[in-house]
Each structure stands twice: as C-alpha cells, then as structure tokens.
Write the structure tokens for this entry.
Amino acid sequence: MSGTAQIGVTGLAVMGRNLARNFARNGFTVAVHNRTTAKTDALVKKFGEEGTFVAAHTPEEFVAALERPRRLVIMVKAGEPTDAVIKEFAPLLEEGDVVIDGGNAHFEDTRRREKELRERGIHFVGVGISGGEEGALNGPSIMPGGSEESYASLGPMLEKIAAKAKDGTPCTTHIGPDAAGHFVKMVHNGIEYADMQLIAEAYHLLRAVAGYSPEQIAETFRSWNTGRLDSYLIEITAEVLAHTDAVTGTPFVDVVQDRAEQKGTGRWTVQIALDLGVPVSGIAEAVFARSLSGHADLREAARGLPGPSATPLGEEGAAAFADRVEQALYASKIVSYTQGFHQIRAGSEAYDWDIDLGAVAGIWRAGCIIRAAFLDRIRSAYDSRPDLLSLLSDQQFAQEIGAAQDDWRTVIAEAVRQGVPTPGFAAALSYYDGLRADRLPAALTQGQRDFFGAHTYRRTDREGSFHTLWGDDRSEVPAG
C-alpha cells in the first residue's frame, strides 16, 4: 500500500467517522482504521462517494498508507485507550511524523505524551474539538497545541475543515506548545457547564416565579436569542422547551428526570483552577449543581425541610420579572467567561504557553458549543488590550454589567425569598462584588491563621511579613 493519504484517522466511532468524512469532503485523501475492521469497511461502503478513503485493516497498512510526514489522528476514549493506541503505532512511525489526539484528554496526559514522543523525534498534537458529532462532520471549533513545526504541517488542513466565523475566518489557530490546546478545550467545557447552569436557572425562575409554561419560556428564549444573548445554547434551549413528548403529550422537559450527568471536563476545570489559585466560582457551582441533582436519595430525605414555596407572579409582574432575568443571565454569563479567560491566562503563564486570548475568543465564534455573538466583542477587547486582566475591566462590558446589576440583585433576592435555588447567578454576583470591594474579610481570615498556626500576615502600613505572639503581651515580631 503506497503512501497516498494526506491524513489518517484511527478510531471510527461517531466522532472519528465524522471527522474522517469532513477531511474527505474537503478534498483530502483519508486513510481510515479501526480495531474492528467491520467499522472501517462500513465507513468506506456507506460514505465512499463523499471523497477518497483508503481502508486499512492493520496498523502497518494504516501507517503505510500515509504520505510523509505522516499525520495520524487518534479518535478513541481518553486515558488508557489513547496510551494503548500510541504504544501500538509509535514504533511504526519515523522522525517528523505527527500524532494527533482529538479526544477529550486531560492536559497533563497530553504534556506527558508530547514529551515522550518528542524524545523520539515524533510530534504529538493535543487537539481540542468542540461541536459534537455534527460539528465534527460539518465544521467544528478546533484547538490544537503542539510544536509550531507540527502546526505548519497540520494547520492548513485543520483550517479547511474547521467552522468559519461570519467574517470567513477559520475557527482554529495554533493555541500554543504541548498541551495548550487541550487545556483551552478543558476551560471551554468549564464555561459550557456554567453557561448551561445559568440558562437552567433562568428557566427555573421563569417557570416557578413568573409562572410561565415551557412553551412560553421557549418563546422568551427565542426573543432573547435575537439580541445580545444570541448563542447556540440559547437557541437549542428554546427548541428543547418547545418540544412535546410524543408518548405523553406533555412538555418534553417534564418527562426528563432532573438528574444532570457529566463526563468530567467540568470537574477538571475546577480542580486545575484550585491548583492555579484561580477563582472560577461560577463554573464550580455549575459542577456542584449537577452533582447535587444526582443525589436522589439525599434530595428525597431533605424534601420535607421547611422553607418557602414559589408563588407565581401576576401577568404584569411576570413580564417585568422576565426582563430582569434576562439582565441577570447576561451579567452572569459575562462573569463566567471572565473566569474562564482568567484561568486560560493563568495556565498560559504557569506553563509558558503564551496563549493569545483574543485568538481563543475568535475561534469560539462558530462551531463550538459555547459559540455566541458576544465572543466577537471579547475577541476585540483582548485584541485591543492584550494585557487586559479581566473582561470586567473592559469599558463596554463594565458599563453593561453595571447597568444590569440592580435587576441582577433583584432577581437573586426574589429567588431567595421564594426558595428557588440560583447558585450560578449568586456565585457570579458574589464574584463581581468581591472584585469591586475596597476591603475583603480576608484580613480576619489571615489573622485567624496567624493565631492558630503562626502563618504570618502582611500589614497595610509597611513592608514585610509579621507574626503576633498571641500570649499575654501580644507583641508583634517580624517573620522569618
């Protein structure tokens, strides 16, 4: 088998199959391989007219089918299955070849793999792919890390198959060295968790407090999607809420168990944020909200606890409340993206990746799950001020969130009064208030730490670290 394929995909489950088809549809000759050869043959038989495929039934055939430098995309489950595929194929590769992991790998695994293969002269590229199975086929947002040399070989192909923003720009770019791509994809998914939780809270408030039906809420979301909240998640929320269950004839949302599952990337975002010391409270609350929803026994045991029950407002009050919810949702979304971009900046600094935050916002404008109209403004904010520490420091976003804050606070207060949980909205507002506060109670916390653990503190009136001798005289001594 001669090396005629410009790229190869091994692992032909839905995502791998659709990615291979995307490459083929865009004019590339694609080698395809799967551990189960029947999947390989089925793909070529069913979709062979979409482009040029080369079916390979063994790893040796697969590698032989690829032109040099070889570009080999792995689309299998993250973790040990990915390591097993790398172990199988690496001995067959040569210096300069490129191995691409398109799965949802933990970025630390990607860093390890990149180092191991680099020592053998093989490029390893961790690629975050967002957009689900439809995106993989029709154009996802693609977040590749790895060496600049590997991107020179792979980048033009990714740019051709990626989603295109409204201005025609491909939604992919070289994120940075080693695991930068998978790190950014992880944070993308964390923002996605927060975004979905905030939308769910808005739905809950409109249902419980405004008294709207799912169909009415669907119309509300459709209206919001024509304005500043224009996004893929708002769009599909309206579709889900408008859907009627074919079996019962009731709203679809009412026949779905209220237990949200998760695959782990949101948890990774929070865990790594803790390691980096970055506050991502909105993302964390979204992860915890999913966890809480899954503890059915705990919730059942607590169902009889005292507290208010929501009482729907009248028609006029409901309409005004819905407008306030839109303000609260928008302000909270800004905070979620602020936290996510802060984490990307912190990761970039910690691992020396030099990530362009404006470019990241740019490739999220289409194809990915969190694509939204205001990402264009986020891109512009970082392009004009690459040193921007926080989106809340951008004049336009600061003005918008300032204008929304009275309604934001009113919505949260009403939710508390009526017993409707809004952990995402509340965490976002607390983060906003924490940033703008002149003084935080952390001074007391540090004093407590010094009392019980001699952890020292810094003073406001002079330099240095100090410790108070918490005995009878309570004298202060310099630390160290």
Notes: The chain has a mean pLDDT of 96.
